[in-house]
TrEMBL record:
Pfam hit, one: WS_DGAT_C
Name of this chain's protein: Diacylglycerol O-acyltransferase
Keywords for the protein's UniProt record, in alphabetical order: Acyltransferase, Glycerol metabolism, Lipid biosynthesis, Lipid metabolism, Transferase
Catalytic activity: an acyl-CoA + a 1,2-diacyl-sn-glycerol = a triacyl-sn-glycerol + CoA
Signal peptide: none
NCBIfam families hit by this protein: acyl_WS_DGAT
Family statement drawn from the similarity comment of this UniProt entry: Belongs to the long-chain O-acyltransferase family.
Length: 448
């Protein structure tokens, strides 16, 4: 039976989970009409067949004797895809609203840990004219880039390409002789360097930790275990127009949009705008091109103080750009935001018993998560139904009430906001503020 030890960060995500804090990623894909406007009766079987053909989705987590406290991915011999693929009929005339409400409720539910940790839901309108697919993958199974690589297997274009590639003869890899002592010395030098970086990250972490989080009242509320989802769509050409006028990157513009939307939302709620913060954790992928999909989560992160109190959109964007430039100059392996790198230095037993305790410390480091998820640029479809929208969803760490995930597809930026349903019941208003803030940036002199 195929087994593969969980990488340290994967193991940390596995043990960070609790009933009230499920650690799964999500994506909500909304599709257009099918061939000749037909219904969706063929989609459950199609989804099931394509999911069953993805090897990673047939693996579950099992404990191992060695290393002590460790776990491994194990291929399930009697895998039954029907336990993972479901369909839900939605009532009402407003399909968009019904989809986001249903997705929020489904994201509340933890994945069953004795099974391969993923689920797919086909969400169908009452009149069977519209459909969407919600995908849930445990964070131990996938970081953002790997989730895209795994989940993309359901789309026509990816599934067809994989089927074609499976029939091609595979070249026999050339064997490289071991480097002997030189290889051993290189490994030792690498480990010493990693330990040195870990010590530096740990020191930065202590300095950056706060006993009094400076976020919004909603972001520091006690968790309820409920989830609410809101979505927004931003025109990508507007993002690039602002970027060309102001400098920096498209991601800088989007982070400034999030900061402005939070400030607008706070003001409308009557909350005090903090002079510094709230602080966002901005994940950064350390996955190298061509790195195998099964090589574990490869993440670091930057910390960013969102300038919500700055009333001038231009100055707000400049502050974000300068802060991100400083982060990039230091690199993703330095600073308190690189806390994920510490997982590589801890033994499995420490993750098993220490992760639940460490999970509560997230609030001392950051107030919300803001992440960008890269998507394929090519047009995608499912059973001939074109993909219209794709909203990523990030998990909420213990003590967190809001996560903002962004992805670009079809010339538009899709934002998925996951919130604690009781702490942030008006997350829909925050989502709407994203578009208002981008319009404000676009209206600045020189942005036209």
């Amino acid at each position: 039976m195929t087994t593969e030890l969980l990488a340290p960060l994967d193991l940390a995500f596995w043990h960070l989970e609790s009933a009230g804090h499920p650690m799964h990623l999500g994506a909500l894909a909304v599709f257009g009409p099918g061939p000749e406007g037909g219904g969706h009766d063929d989609l459950p079987e199609l989804l099931a067949a394509r999911a069953a053909a993805i090897p990673r989705l047939r693996m579950r987590v099992a404990d191992v004797l060695l290393p002590i406290g460790g776990s491994a991915w194990t291929m399930v011999r009697d895998f039954d895809v029907r336990r993972h693929v479901h369909q839900v009929r939605l009532d009402g005339d407003d399909f968009g609203r019904a989809v986001t409400e249903a997705a929020g409720e489904l994201m509340e539910r933890p994945l069953e840990r004795g099974l391969p940790p993923w689920e797919m839901y086909l969400l169908r309108s009452a009149d069977d004219t519209r459909c969407a697919v919600l995908v849930k993958l445990h964070h131990a199974l996938a970081d953002g880039m790997r989730a895209v690589a795994i989940g993309a297997g359901i789309f026509d274009e990816i599934a067809d390409a994989r089927a074609t590639a499976a029939h091609r003869p595979r070249p026999v890899p050339a064997r490289t002789p071991p480097a002997g002592a030189r290889r051993l010395a290189g490994f030792a030098q690498s480990r010493i360097g990693e330990l040195g970086r870990a010590v530096g990250v740990g020191a930065s972490l202590v300095r950056a930790s706060r006993l009094d989080p400076r976020g919004l009242p909603a972001l520091t509320a006690a968790p309820s275990g409920t989830r609410r989802l809101a979505t927004a769509v931003l025109p990508l050409d507007t993002v690039h127009r602002v970027r060309r006028a102001s400098g920096g990157t498209a991601n800088d513009v989007l982070l400034a949009v999030v900061a402005g939307a939070l400030g607008r939302w706070m003001t409308e709620r009557g909350d005090r705008l903090p002079a510094a913060g709230p602080r966002a954790l901005v994940p950064v992928s350390r996955r190298r091109p061509g790195q195998p999909a099964g090589s574990g989560n490869r993440l670091s992160a930057y910390l960013l103080e969102l300038p919500v109190a700055e009333p001038d959109p231009r100055l707000r964007l400049a502050a974000v750009r300068e802060a991100m430039d400083r982060n990039k100059a230091a690199g993703p392996a330095r600073g308190a935001g690189a806390v994920a790198l510490l997982a590589d230095q801890l033994p499995p037993l420490a993750h098993r018993f220490g992760a639940p305790l460490a999970g509560g410390a997230a609030r001392m480091l950051f107030d919300l998560l803001v992440t960008s998820v890269p998507l394929p640029r090519a047009a995608l479809s499912l059973g001939g139904r074109p993909l219209r929208e794709l909203y990523p969803m990030a998990p909420l760490a213990r003590g967190q009430s809001l996560a903002v995930a962004l992805s670009t597809y079809g010339g538009r930026v899709h934002a998925g906001l996951v919130a604690d349903g009781e702490a942030v019941p008006d997350v829909g208003r925050l989502a709407a503020a994203l578009g208002e803030e981008l319009a404000a940036l676009d209206g600045l002199p020189g942005a036209a």
